[in-house]
């Protein structure tokens, strides 16, 4: 048997690995992540409906806004599921979710009202919106990070960032049901900033056990 | 693999033993003999850490090949880093080299003459006398940044000199 630089033969390593083997049930990333996303969605909706309240003036633009964020959440869920294990088992509906995000986003841009960047950032709820999305996003990510101990992504930092993005997108979908501002500029500033903060937190804090 | 996932140590041992030649063959093809054994062992450890991510309803080969592929990529990255200039400065280039190839044995004094006096002194202090960056900076009344930059540039220059001499 060939010796390596560490002077351990393959046989010795195999002996050591097989001796330390413990039963390890299959990790189904899709089921775990879907369940976690569902729980987070319910918690966010409970917060919005129970505490903040759903907006009363629903119109086409507001439906489209929620649709954009919900479709983006599904796309993020597909991405994070595919990346949770070394071998990417692609989800057929992932492209549908991406396509739905683009279509709903385009329609929302047309149907939503126009705001300049300055107007969007001057809206009094801007900071609150950003903080809610970032805060709930990071809280959700922290729980998911804790639960997903058995994930083995090939790129833990990227996986962690997408996981946090998923969490923040779920938070923003819920927030969109309360938020009365139906403008793509507002989504592109307040919402995206909140999501970016959560994604950055995810990027900075991948779980040690994810490295293999 | 399915038995191994349920904790069957004998089945796991048989699986790892049977898969090792296959891993080695593919590793050799991509990283050569020098690094093949390291890649195989790293892949065996990766199999152990990621065993639960294998779906027994699917073929094992793509899963195994994915683990091997990432370990090969890591090996390439390591080699690339090893030969980067920074690494040459830190580990590779030794003025008092024990290299046995006579074609690249250059006289130390001759080599130092290729450098400006101040640069040669920095190399003498840090790489031969073994002073730290801070100590060398204090000795030469210079800043630590200047010493670091000078070491980097000087070693790069010396490396090129040796490279030219061997061609």
Could you please describe the fold and organization of this structure?
The complex is a heterodimer of chains A (212) and B (167). With 212 residues, chain A is mainly alpha-helical. Helix content of chain A is 69%, strand content 0%. Chain A contains eight helices and no strands. In chain A, helix 2 runs antiparallel to helix 3 (60-83), helix 2 packs parallel to helix 7 and helix 6 (126-147) crosses helix 7 (156-176). Chain A is elongated and about 70 Å long. Mean pLDDT of chain A is 89; it is low at 1-6. With 167 residues, chain B is mainly α. Chain B contains eight helices and no strands. Chain B has helices at residues 2-5, 9-50, 60-82, 85-92, 108-113, 117-128, 133-140, 144-166. In chain B, helix 4 crosses helix 8 (144-166) and helix 6 (117-128) crosses helix 8 (144-166). The longest helix of chain B has 42 residues, at 9-50. The N and C termini of chain B lie far apart (52 Å). At the A-B interface, helix 1 of A face helix 2 and helix 3 of B.
By DSSP (H or I, 4+ residues per run), the number of helices of chain A equals 8
Strand percentage of chain A lies at: under 5%
Low-pLDDT sequence parts of chain B? 91-105
What order do the helices and strands of chain B follow? Answer: HHHHHHHH
What are the segments of chain A in which pLDDT stays under 50 over at least 5 consecutive residues? 1-6
Name the helicity range of chain B. over 70%
Oligomer: heterodimer
Envelope shape of chain B: elongated
Instruction: Give the N-to-C terminal Cα separation of chain A.
Output: 25 Å
The total of helices of chain B stands at 8
- Please write the string of helix (H) and strand (E) elements of chain A: HHHHHHHH
Mean pLDDT of chain A: 89
Radius of gyration of chain B: 24 Å
Radius of gyration of chain A: 21 Å
Quick one: biggest sheet of chain B? none
The biggest sheet of chain A, with number of strands, parallel, antiparallel or mixed sense and barrel status, is: none
């Amino acid at each position: 048997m060939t010796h390596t630089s560490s002077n351990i033969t393959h046989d010795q390593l195999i002996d050591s690995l097989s001796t330390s083997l413990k039963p390890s049930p299959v990790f189904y990333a899709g089921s775990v992540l879907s369940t976690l996303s569902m729980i987070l969605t319910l918690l966010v909706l409970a917060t919005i409906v129970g505490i903040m309240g759903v907006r009363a003036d629903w119109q086409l633009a507001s439906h489209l806004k929620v649709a954009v964020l919900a479709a983006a959440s599904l796309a993020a869920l597909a991405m994070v599921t595919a990346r949770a294990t070394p071998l990417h088992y692609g989800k057929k509906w992932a492209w549908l979710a991406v396509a739905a995000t683009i279509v709903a986003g385009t329609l929302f841009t047309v149907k939503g009202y126009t705001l300049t960047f300055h107007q969007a950032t001057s809206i009094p709820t801007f900071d609150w919106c950003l903080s809610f999305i970032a805060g709930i996003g990071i809280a959700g990510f922290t729980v998911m990070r804790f639960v997903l101990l058995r994930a083995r992504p090939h790129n833990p930092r990227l996986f962690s960032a997408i996981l946090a993005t998923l969490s923040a997108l779920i938070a923003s979908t819920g927030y969109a049901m309360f938020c009365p501002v139906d403008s793509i500029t507002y989504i592109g500033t307040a919402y995206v900033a909140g999501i970016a903060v959560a994604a950055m937190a995810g990027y900075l804090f991948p779980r040690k056990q994810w490295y293999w | 693999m399915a038995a191994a996932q349920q904790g069957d140590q004998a089945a796991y041992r048989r699986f790892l033993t049977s898969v090792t030649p296959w891993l080695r063959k593919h590793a050799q093809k991509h990283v050569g003999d020098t690094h093949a054994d390291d890649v195989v062992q790293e892949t065996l450890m990766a199999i152990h850490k990621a065993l639960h991510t294998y779906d027994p309803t699917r073929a094992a080969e793509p899963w195994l090949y994915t683990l091997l592929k990432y370990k090969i990529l890591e090996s390439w990255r390591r080699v690339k880093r090893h030969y980067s200039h920074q690494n040459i400065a830190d580990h590779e280039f030794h003025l008092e080299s024990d290299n046995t190839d006579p074609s690249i044995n250059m006289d130390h004094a001759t080599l130092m003459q290729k450098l400006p006096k101040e640069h040669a002194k920095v190399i003498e202090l840090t790489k031969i006398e073994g002073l730290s960056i801070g100590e060398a900076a204090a000795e030469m009344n210079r800043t630590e940044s200047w010493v670091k930059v000078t070491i980097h540039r000087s070693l790069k220059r010396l490396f090129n000199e040796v490279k030219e001499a061997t061609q």
